[in-house]
Structure formats: structure tokens, C-alpha cells
Specification:
five-stranded antiparallel β-sheet, single chain, about 140 residues, 3 helices, 5 strands, alpha+beta, about 30% helix
């Protein structure tokens, strides 16, 4: 139909952590404007990080209106990743909290980012918002 935009996320392409780390700076190199027309960051390979255990992070850097950058991390996972968490932790709030903590820790490991977690949003995919730590020269 005319006017519709079909989302085609990149095919699953898991990589070792060192390769993902090497790509991270490109994901946050420029501010993403959410008012920008498609494609969305999830459709652009430089923002998509697939881990070998089934976790996918989509990472962008945007502006929350304050003029300061804000890193946005969207998490999704394959059935294998989710099943592994549930097998270890079981269902329930504590398991979800532990899973969210594990996902956020993975972002920290990938990025080396030490800035504060600003907020978490739970929807179709968990979203984390992080204020980048100041760079000291």
C-alpha cells in the first residue's frame, strides 16, 4: 500500500564481543533525531548488536530535549536467550529484574559506558536510557 513503510530489521548476525565493541563508537557517533523519517535505527546495521547467546541490543544516541546526549538501548532476544534466563531464574518479578540487570550489564560490558541509568521502560522490548559519562581530557 502506498505510504506504508515495511520494517526489515537486519538478519540475525551474532558476533564475538570484541567485534561488537569495535563497532560501538559508530552507533553513538551522531545524535539520532526521532522525528527523522524511516529507516529506524533498528533497520541500520551500525546500531544493531547481536550477541552469540541470543541477545540483540539496538543502540542509538539522541537528545531528550535538554541539549545533552542520551544513549537509548533497546533489548530483544531469541527464544534461546529467554529460555536460558527462565531456566536459571524461573518466572516472576525477581527473574525479570535479574534479566533486566543482566541486559544492562551486557550494555556496560559492550560499551564501557559508566554514565548513570536515567530510566527504564518496559514495553514490547525493554528500553534503557543512559546519560553518557563526561569525557575528561
Amino acid at each position: 500500500m502506498s505510504g506504508e513503510h515495511l520494517t526489515l530489521t537486519p538478519a540475525w548476525d551474532p558476533r564475538p564481543l570484541d567485534q561488537l565493541r569495535a563497532r560501538y563508537p559508530a552507533a553513538v557517533a551522531r545524535l539520532y533525531d526521532v522525528r527523522q523519517p524511516p529507516p529506524s535505527p533498528a533497520e541500520l546495521g551500525r546500531h544493531v548488536f547481536d550477541f552469540e547467546d541470543g541477545l540483540r541490543l539496538v543502540i542509538t544516541c539522541g537528545d531528550d530535549g535538554s541539549g545533552d546526549p542520551l544513549i537509548c538501548i533497546s533489548a530483544s532476544f531469541s527464544a534461546g536467550f529467554g529460555d536460558a534466563i527462565l531456566a536459571r531464574l524461573g518466572p516472576g518479578f525477581e527473574a525479570m529484574n535479574t534479566a533486566l540487570s543482566a541486559i544492562f550489564a551486557r550494555f556496560r560490558t559492550l560499551s564501557g559506558e559508566t554514565g548513570p541509568l536515567v530510566s527504564v521502560s518496559l514495553g514490547d522490548h525493554p528500553l534503557f536510557f543512559v546519560r553518557p559519562a563526561p569525557v575528561h581530557n
